[in-house]
Write a structure and sequence with these properties.
InterPro entries: DUF3425. With 123 residues, this protein is mainly α. The chain is built from five helices and two strands. A two-stranded antiparallel ribbon has the order 1-2.
Length: 123
């Protein structure tokens, strides 16, 4: 299976590929603990202790930002999942740099709208 993004990478394609790298089922929405990742999984996608010890939505595991993943899990009672998902997929959220791997945090360029509203998740 190729993990290259064609023709132009999108948030959708990047999250799908990151899930494939982790061996996640694309249709799974059942909250669970993350499984330890094999050593060949890029460091940016390796689960954090929070992911390994806290039941959470599996889609969180697809983001190449450990702090963001932990914050999404730890702040889940204060975050409206629908609002986050709507902004991620329907508003200017992120651009993925062509030629860079989807799991490379440097490939993700967070848009101002998304950063203004959700930037606290990255710190």
């Amino acid at each position: 299976m190729s993990y290259e993004l064609y023709p132009l990478p999108t948030v959708f394609s990047a999250l799908y590929i990151n899930g494939a790298v982790l061996g996640l089922n694309s249709c799974s929405a059942v909250p669970a603990l993350s499984s330890p990742a094999p050593p060949n999984v890029p460091l940016s996608l390796q689960p954090t202790p929070t992911q390994l010890l806290t039941v959470h939505q599996p889609g969180i595991d697809r983001f190449p930002f450990a702090k963001m993943r932990d914050n999404l899990i730890n702040l889940c009672a204060m975050i409206d999942d629908e609002d986050f998902t709507r902004d991620l997929f329907t508003m200017p959220s992120s651009n993925i740099t062509p030629g860079l791997a989807s799991w490379d945090p440097q490939a993700w360029k967070i848009e101002k709208y998304f950063a203004d509203k959700w930037g606290f998740l990255f710190y």
